[in-house]
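A reminder from the course coordinator: this example appears on the midterm review sheet, so study it carefully.

Given structure:
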């Protein structure tokens, strides 16, 4: 049933001092989070809201119903523990946006939206501005009218929301400062001007470390929404850039001590403050929500994973996952499996939606691999409890698509990585892991693999997979040095979120800086 513009929130308001833990405080900070639907953006945004709530801020997470239901169990658990956090859910107006009804809530396990409907989806989400504002004005507990909007940078329309509410707006980045600064400088200094070949190497200008040259191609780092020359996408990219430039600051899921020069470089380039608060996944450390973070319907239970891992030696298992968007093609996925088999190492391999995406020939090949490596290889056909797996002592390496969340989760677990980027910021994250941090081995992918007009059948051969896994998991001097660096980075990451650490201090600063200076409970009703 369509909303016909009658959007309303499903969350109950929090009253001061109620069972959900909200305290009556004339100066309480109230952050309104407006995340993006993609797992890589949504999960860390919610984790950040929960971390701010642990320090006394009220946090409202405003999202479409289809997005909200993927994190409802996490938010409900936080509320039950006494944290002042609430989830406000809004139905989309399908008719007004031109989005097919239900297109935002696909039946597949990853809930991906068909690329053909993405612009309509973004239009539908932008139409939530007025309903969200009405909800916030109607349901603001006494003394806790919103004091700050925190929006994913892909939601530029929140500029108008924050302006109408009369509060500051911070951009949320589930990306590294290195990646964001590289993208910014490539555009700011017009690095691609006069470069016709999209695969021609270009040095990223204006980086803090002059002795380290970071080389990319336009194909690898085209800029946000610049890879496809479709007017609507380019217009959205321009809108996003204007909104980013007008923000009052940035919250970033990264660790200051891991990339201080790039955080400082981005602050200087933009002229506003960057609050680094990562690794936000550590909010769930040791909690029951760790295994279900991002999905309440995993394809395999955490207990089953842990039992399997308990039977393996320390550091002997390689974990393989390409995240929630990237998908290996039919021939490539078989080649990957054969390479893992040939490596000789135990492995957990997440083959997302294998039964829905691949034909019977490929599914049969995967079953044959599975039979041959029984006891040594575990195939997970769907969502897996990644943080729980990476944290286990038996895991010694991670074959990753280089999404920033996965990269940072590997760093937090002290693991070296095999890098296999597919698109967007993943090539820059690969450079971060391999060239800047020295914890990665590349499989040699040079151009995007996702959203290609004509996908290549096999990009990485089984022998390359085998060699890369052996290199990361081996006993040589280089392998041990990568592990040493990874363990040192893990120590920095964990120290950052502890009391006295940089991320802990930034969370406290956010709560203090964006606290209300006066009661606004009687704010005007607005639109």
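Designed residues:
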């Amino acid at each position: 049933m369509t909303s016909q513009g009658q959007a309303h929130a499903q969350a109950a308001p929090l009253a001061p001092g109620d069972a959900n833990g909200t305290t009556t405080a004339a100066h309480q900070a109230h952050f309104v989070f407006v995340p993006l639907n993609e797992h890589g953006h949504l999960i860390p945004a919610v984790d950040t809201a929960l971390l701010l709530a642990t320090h006394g801020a009220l946090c409202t997470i405003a999202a479409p119903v289809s997005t909200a239901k993927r994190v409802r169990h996490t938010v409900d658990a936080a509320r039950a523990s006494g944290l002042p956090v609430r989830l406000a859910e809004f139905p989309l107006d399908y008719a007004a946006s031109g989005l097919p009804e239900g297109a935002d809530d696909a039946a597949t396990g990853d809930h991906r939206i068909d690329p053909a409907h993405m612009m309509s989806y973004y239009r539908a989400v932008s139409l939530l501005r007025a309903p969200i504002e009405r909800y916030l004005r109607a349901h603001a507990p006494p003394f806790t009218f919103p004091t700050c909007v925190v929006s994913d940078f892909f939601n530029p329309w929140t500029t108008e929301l924050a302006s109408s509410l009369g509060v500051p707006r911070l951009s949320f980045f589930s990306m590294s400062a290195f990646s964001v600064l590289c993208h910014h400088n490539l555009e700011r200094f017009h690095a691609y001007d006069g470069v016709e070949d999209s695969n021609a190497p270009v040095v990223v200008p204006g980086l803090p470390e002059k002795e380290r040259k970071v080389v990319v191609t336009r194909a690898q780092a085209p800029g946000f929404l610049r890879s496809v020359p479709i007017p609507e996408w380019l217009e959205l990219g321009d809108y996003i850039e204007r909104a980013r430039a007008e923000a009052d600051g940035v919250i970033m899921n990264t660790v200051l001590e891991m990339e201080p020069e790039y955080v400082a470089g981005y602050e200087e380039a933009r002229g506003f403050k960057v609050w680094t608060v990562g690794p936000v996944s550590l909010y769930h450390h040791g909690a029951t929500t760790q295994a279900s973070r991002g999905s309440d319907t995993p394809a395999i239970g955490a207990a089953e994973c842990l039992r399997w891992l308990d039977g393996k030696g320390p550091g002997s298992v390689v974990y393989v996952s390409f995240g929630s968007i990237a998908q290996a093609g039919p021939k490539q996925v078989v080649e990957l499996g054969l390479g893992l088999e040939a490596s000789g190492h135990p492995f957990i391999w997440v083959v997302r939606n294998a039964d829905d995406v691949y034909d019977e020939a490929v599914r049969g090949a995967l079953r044959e691999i599975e039979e041959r490596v029984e006891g040594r290889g575990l195939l997970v056909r769907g969502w897996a409890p990644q943080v729980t797996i990476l944290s286990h002592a038996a895991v010694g390496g991670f074959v990753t698509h280089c999404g920033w969340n996965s990269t940072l989760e590997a760093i937090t677990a002290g693991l070296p990585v095999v890098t296999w980027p597919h698109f967007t910021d993943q090539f820059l994250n690969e450079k971060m892991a391999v060239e800047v941090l020295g914890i990665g081995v590349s499989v040699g992918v040079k151009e995007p693999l996702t959203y290609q007009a004509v996908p290549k059948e096999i990009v990485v051969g089984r022998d390359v997979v085998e060699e890369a896994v052996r290199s990361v998991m081996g006993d040589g001097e280089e392998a041990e040095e990568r592990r040493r660096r990874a363990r040192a980075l893990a120590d920095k990451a964990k120290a950052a979120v502890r009391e006295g650490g940089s991320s802990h201090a930034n969370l406290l600063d956010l709560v203090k800086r964006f606290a209300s200076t006066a009661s606004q409970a009687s704010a005007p009703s607005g639109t």
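Residues 477-497 form the longest helix (21 residues). Residues 1-25, 518-527 have pLDDT under 50 and may be disordered.
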